[in-house]
Amino acid sequence: MIRETPEARPHRLFLSLSGLVVIAGLQPIANGLLTLGDLYGLHAPPRLIHAVEYGQISAATVLFAWLALRVINRTTLDRVSPRRRLLEPGAAVTIGALAIYTAMPAAGLQRVGVAVFGIAVAWLALEVCRAHGLPLDRPTAPAERTKTSWSIAPLAFGACLAGGTATAQLLTALGGAGVPVMEGQQLAATGITTALDLVLNVVWAAGIEDVVMVAAVTTLLTAARRPAWQIYTTVCVLEVGVHAYAGIPAIGMLLYAAGRVWLYHRYHRLLPMVAGHIAYDLFAALNQTLPPNYRNVMLTLVLAAGLLYDWWAKRTKAPGSPPAPIEQQPEACPDPPPPAATRRS
């Protein structure tokens, strides 16, 4: 067996990272940039729009093959039970095939497809990082997990709120100054018209933005020994690209991206961050349906609740410092092969 040299390992990490980012970000970033071009009179030809659609089908096809191979390689019969050997690869193949089918414009299932693709690419990110020996969620005791979750989720909500508020203020200021910006509310700009659309897009955002663009990017670049500024820059560029449909005000999402990178790098907890993001998306959608005079009232109530929660958390918190950022360990296979004598042919 050929052993991987320390010099070769970063190249494998970067290769995995590049694949995940291209698969997850191809369509949303391309659509965001095309919409940005429309705001400034740079209308894309139909051929380019079709190219993005075909690119998404290609990304879904690569996702299908990559996810299926990763799960099949991980669930050999010398490592898992026959039941898991059947169920896990079967689920991976099914969701990968659905991602391809729902990405096809002729199927007419693009709305459902966003959630299917978000789940599939999040699963792929978990499998890829696991193959490198890099879990996306810190293993902790149940008591500590519950305690830290109640601290992290509100912080994630606050990071989303900071980015969303900054973007909204820039939309108002720049739009009033005559700069081309997104018209109307974000719900209309992203084509969300029903509660089902909202739920599907929230699932997509959790899978694409939280699992891939924040957790996987931060984990892989940290393991590759890249400096913090490169990690923050990569995630910020991706997030601003995804929200480029807002125009120049999308730079307000730098707060949204940087805050969540800091939070994840500090605590290395994925699920509470996803919960905070989902809670903010639902709050923002509700707030946009209210009359303008009530939106500031709702925002004030949320900020007041956050300050009250922070005060209560500090009063009830046991003495001690927060956990230090997790250090990525050298790559190791989480499921070592059996001895040669028992290895299956």
What this model shows, in words?
This protein is mostly helical and 345 residues long. Helix 2 (46-74) crosses helix 4 (110-131) and helix 7 (195-223) packs across helix 9 (253-267). The chain contains 11 helices and no strands. Helices cover 71% and strands 0% of the residues. Residues 1-8 and 318-345 have low confidence and may be disordered. It is globular and about 65 Å long.
- Shape type: globular
- Runs with pLDDT <50, length 5+? 1-8, 318-345
**What is the number of beta strands?**
0
Order of helical and strand elements: HHHHHHHHHHH
Could you say which structural class the secondary elements and strand pairing correspond to?
Answer: mainly alpha
Helix content: over 70%
How is the main sheet built? none
Number of helices: 11
Specify Rg, calculated over alpha carbons.
21 Å
Q: What is the multimeric organization of the chains shown? A: single chain
Mean pLDDT: 82
Approximately how much beta-strand content do the residues carry?
under 5%
The CA-CA distance between the termini, in Å, is: 16 Å
Topology, element by element:
Layout: H1 9-39, H2 46-74, H3 82-103, H4 110-131, H5 142-176, H6 186-189, H7 195-223, H8 228-242, H9 253-267, H10 271-289, H11 292-316
